[in-house]
Amino acid sequence: MEEVKQKAINSQIYGSGTWKILMAESGLNMFMMRIICFILNICTLFLAVPWTTTMYYNAWAQNVQIDGKNLKFTGKATGFFGVWLKTLLLSAFTLGIYYLVIGRKNVSRWVDSNLQWNI
Q1: Taking the C-alpha atoms of 82, 87, 88 and 94 in order, what is their torsion angle to the nearest 10 degrees?
Q2: Among candidates 21, 87, 25, which has minimal Cα distance to 56?
Q3: DSSP labels for the chain?
Q4: Distance from chain centroid for Cα 112
Q5: Which residues of the chain are under the pLDDT cut of 50?
Q6: What is the pLDDT of residue 65?
Q7: What per-residue string of b and e applies to 80-118 under the rule 16 or more CB within 10 Å gives b?
Q8: pLDDT of res. 118
């Protein structure tokens, strides 16, 4: 009886346990998305990075599933452009030190701030 109560409490705290976060990046669709984004970035001399980044994270968020709920990515390329440009310029000015210390986290913070539960 105690074990059943503990499982019920754990399911309320931790959810159902069906999480698909890291696997959201796998599969043929996401592989093709990465190839397409890379080709677009090369063809535009990396000026399309904000648009390809939002394109990629939109596709990624559709594949993420946490406790049976899906995520929605609400970020726009224009919003990411400022983050990308600031990181690029400060990294160039500091010879890459800014990117190693702070810049990598800028993108992660921006992505995290633009994720919502898909209702």
Answers
A1: 140
A2: 25
A3: -HHHHHHHHHHHHH-SS-EESGGGG-SHHHHHHHHHHHHHHHHTTTTTHHHHHHHHHHHHHHH-EETTEEEEE---HHHHHHHHHHHHHHHHHTTTHHIIIIIHHHHHHHHHHTEEE--
A4: 7
A5: none
A6: 84
A7: beebbeebeebbeeeeeebbeeebeebeeebbeebbeee
A8: 83
